[in-house]
Amino acid sequence: MELDRVDEQLVRALQRDGRVSYEALGRLVGLARSTVQARVRRLSDAGALRVVGAVHPAVFGLRQLGHAIISVEGPARRVADAVAAIGETSFVTTTAGRFAVTAELRAPGLDAFARGLERVQAVPGVRAVQVLTYLRIWKDPYFPPGPLESPGPPGGLELDGSDHALLERLRADGRASYVELSEASGLSPGAARARVLRLLDSGVVHVGALVRLSPLSTVHTVGFALTVDGATEPVARKVVALEEVDCLATGLGWCNAIGTVRAASQEEVFAALERLRELPGVRAVESWAHLHAVKEENDLALPR
What we know:
Elements: H1 5-16, H2 22-29, H3 33-45, E1 49-55, E2 64-72, H4 76-84, E3 89-96, E4 101-107, H5 110-121, E5 126-139, E6 146-147, H6 161-172, H7 178-185, H8 189-202, E7 205-211, E8 220-228, H9 233-240, E9 245-253, E10 257-263, H10 266-278, E11 282-296
Antiparallel strand pairs: 1-7, 2-4, 2-5, 3-4, 3-11, 5-6, 5-9, 8-10, 8-11, 9-10
Helix pairs in contact: 2-3, 6-7, 7-8
């Protein structure tokens, strides 16, 4: 399906805040509430867009995250399918570029993360795997930003049964009403609203638009890796300020940072990559185009 500029504006707004009202979206794009609601419904009905609550993986005991780029021998799709079947992978794509397959992995700790990587390396057809182990999420429409060293939920919150019930309901439908959330949690609508706001403010959950790569084929999604001179943090702050940069994580490994650019045209992608190359402290930028999403579980810290 084709997205126009208004659709893209709506998608980005919903990524920032999936519970934003249709009235506010209408003011943003200059359209009536009913028109905006129809556009969002069209994207949802096409399977291209879901508004979900992305729960911080630490809530589920997943504290080690990282990104792998995979070189292959022979066809890439068989490798991608096999990598997607590995429990530690949450996101797998085929790509155009030096790397045929990319994957994100999540695990309870470093040992489990290493075992997941071993299973990736053992997949027939895998020639080489290069890894960036995340230290910090700087920007991600489906993941609360921040460091990853916390041993429990962000903000030090102690979650009870009602909190978990709210999170489970939001994972299924990020725009569920407070009445629906009340019914799911056993709380009053007012108490459910207060709990949800606390979960959102603490970073335990982020409600945003989950954009499927494959249906939105007209939107160009390009991954990039940065190598920097000196400290990474000053560069990361400049990178996340670029509107076209959809996500960014920094860590330890073959590069200093991994990110994604989303844009409506190849010209806009190239312009965004040029802006990255121009940033002070950036030594090298390597990029690849995401072609097909084999596995997308950014809305689920663990499969149901």
